[in-house]
Amino acid sequence: MGDVLGIIAARGGSKRVPRKNIREIDGKPLLAFAIEDAKAADTVDKVIVSTEDDEIRSVANEWGGKTPFTRPEELASDDATTDDVVAHALEWFEERETTFSEVCSIPVTTPFREPVDIDETIRLLRDTGAKSAMSVVGYDSPPFSAVDFDEEDHSISPYFEESNLWVESQAQKVPTLYHPSGAVFAATVSGFREHESFYTDDAVGYRMPPERSLDIDVPHDLETARAYAAWQDQDD
């Protein structure tokens, strides 16, 4: 087996939660959670933080994160994707004659993920021979309950042509569906190159428990995470 590159993308210009990557939960910046998880994972051989921001670079270094390059400004815009950042990192290493067999993205926004979640996702990738693997979690509310909402007359109607939840008595028939939790994305480098994404035509999912899958996207999520961390501290 070849080496695994773990990439933590942490730009400075987050909009919905300003300076999100270094906001603190339980006295620790979000970035630190990702660095510690990635470094503690048995399957990840090299961990780097990709950022264009000097303060984030400093925080990363303080918590043991390596920042071997400065991310280009065009890859720190609102339009740039994590896939773009991963491709840039792979190219940076290849230009220096360093290659990897697999690549893993460890997002900063899931602070309750654990190293085992990274390991199990990568092991699943290897054991199944798939091109990519990612953590998934069940929907809190079945998506079949989705409705269209008319802003003018406030009317609602089922979003899906066949909405099992439109009739309450049919709720027990709704299957359990999952979505990517946003905690771990992994792929063979060849699979990532082929699709320029972790979403390949041959992907597998590692099921994560909901309590480790909180994804911080808006300010309310950050406050929820802080409350959950405080509750965990009391429980301990």
Structure description:
This protein has helices spanning 30-40, 54-62, 82-95, 115-128, 189-195, 219-235, and strands at 4-9, 24-25, 28-29, 46-50, 102-105, 132-138, 147-149, 156-158, 178-188, 203-207. It has 236 residues and is of the alpha/beta class. It has two domains: 4-139 and 177-235, Alpha-Beta Complex (Spore Coat Polysaccharide Biosynthesis Protein SpsA, Chain A); 140-175, no CATH class. It has a six-stranded mixed beta sheet, with helices on both faces. It has a two-stranded antiparallel sheet with strand order 2-3. A two-stranded antiparallel sheet has the order 7-8. The model has no long low-confidence stretch (mean pLDDT 93).
Salient structural properties:
236 residues, alpha/beta, Spore Coat Polysaccharide Biosynthesis Protein SpsA, Chain A, 2 domains, six-stranded mixed sheet, two-stranded antiparallel ribbon, 6 helices, 10 strands
Order of helices and strands: EEEHEHHEHEEEEHEH
| Helical content (DSSP H or I, runs of 4+) | 25-40%
Instruction: Average the pLDDT over all residues and give the rounded result.
Output: 93
Give the neighbour order of strands across the main sheet: 4-1-5-9-6-10
Strand content: 15-25%
Can you tell me the CATH topology of the largest domain? Spore Coat Polysaccharide Biosynthesis Protein SpsA, Chain A
Strand tally: 10
Which outline best applies?
globular
- Specify the CATH class of the largest domain: Alpha Beta
* Main β sheet profile: 6 strands, mixed
Count of spatially separate domains: 2
Q: Mind telling me which CATH architecture of the largest domain this is?
A: Alpha-Beta Complex
CATH superfamily of the largest domain: Spore Coat Polysaccharide Biosynthesis Protein SpsA, Chain A
Terminal CA distance: 39 Å
Report the uncertain regions. none
Radius of gyration: 19 Å
Structure annotation, total helices: 6
Overall SS class: alpha/beta
